Amino acid sequence: MALSRGAGNQVKESVFAWEGKDKTGKTVRGELRAGGEAVVNVTLRRQGIMVTKVRKKVYRSGKKVTDKDITLFTRQLATMMKAGVPLLQSFDIVGKGHANPSVSKLVMDLRADIETGTSLNQAFRKFPLYFDPLFCNLVGAGEQAGILEDLLTRLAIYKEKTIAIKSKIKSALTYPVSILAVAFLVTAVIMIWVVPAFKEVFTSFGANLPAPTLFVMALSEFFVKWWYIIFGGLFAAIYFFFRAWQRSLQMQRFMDKLLLRLPVFGEVIRKATIARWTRTLSTMFAAGVPLVESLDSVGGAAGNAVYLDATRKIQTEVSTGTSLTVAMQNADVFPNMVTQMVSIGEESGSLDAMLGKVADFYEDEVDEAVASLSALMEPAIMVILGVLIGGLVVAMYLPIFKLGAVV
């Protein structure tokens, strides 16, 4: 919630819905963000409106505002502005028609800010949790150049492509992890409940058991005795790992480097990172944002510490007069094809178009790589599950097979 200073104190502002009559006697309605009903009355009276009703708006708590919500909001705002719908009315339509109350509140807070004369760019900057510097810089450039509708459309396309490529990478990584987690749970169930039941049967045989069976039974005894430590330790390790990843910059850098070196998956992540990097720079440059200033947003948008460090190095070199092509070559994290395309773009004066083509190429590469991975992982995971679960089952049935052979 925004704060305003009055009489040396911080006063919480709220959104008020009002109704009144203008100088011609016509009934008018609207919304205003203010510190109280008295402020609303005074403000509207100065505008020549005789207020008849003032009501504080109460928003229901809703779900978290996601990247998809912001992307949809950007697309809707761009579409309505291109259709000639006034800005405040566009905010009304988007805010009142959204299914998520949290998004509605965010949009109406933005609308109230803009209604008091704040620029769209400055209104967005008050909510950094939802609108990053790249978003605000592009909106600011659009306002200054008078091409806000075009810039919002570019932003919507950029965010849609970014979300699409992130979801593809997540799906590629989530599938094997979820299967392995299920395999672990199934194995634990077999070890804790199934194998002990077989053990009771085998003790009545009075014969020597095969080595694989003895190994599985010993493993089962360990699981039964220490299951709470195994599960507790595993969940604690996962929890603290992700907490450390979120809070420690060194941990993030280490993991980002490790992810790029993973067999098979590392190449997909690298291509996705390059696609985001080139798409961001293309969008910023096409909006007329200076190259050095654009690189401020590009590094963070890439989503990888290796490319963030490389971008800072590139920015330093470009600011001293080095060409972008040479700076990217010196960074040594971009394939030759990328630097060659950038070189052609710089020479022909169409850098944004060339960067866009590179982004399109790598996005297609990621699509193909994820599709290939999905096709390859299914049989590979079936083999792993077959060996793991099948091995346990065979080990437990070996004594029964031997008994049948003796009989």
What can you see in these coordinates?
The structure is a single chain. This protein has 407 residues and is mainly alpha-helical. Among the domains are: 3-56, no CATH class; 67-160, Receptor-associated Protein. It has helices at 37-46, 67-82, 87-96, 101-115, 120-125, 133-145, 148-202, 211-247, 249-261, 265-286, 291-302, 305-319, 324-331, 336-348, 351-406; strands at residues 3-6, 9-12, 14-21, 27-34, 50-56. A hairpin with a 5-residue loop joins β3 and β4. 29% of the residues are buried. The model is unreliable at 1-10 (pLDDT under 50). It comes from Duganella margarita. Belongs to the GSP F family. Keywords: Cell inner membrane, Cell membrane, Membrane, Transmembrane, Transmembrane helix.
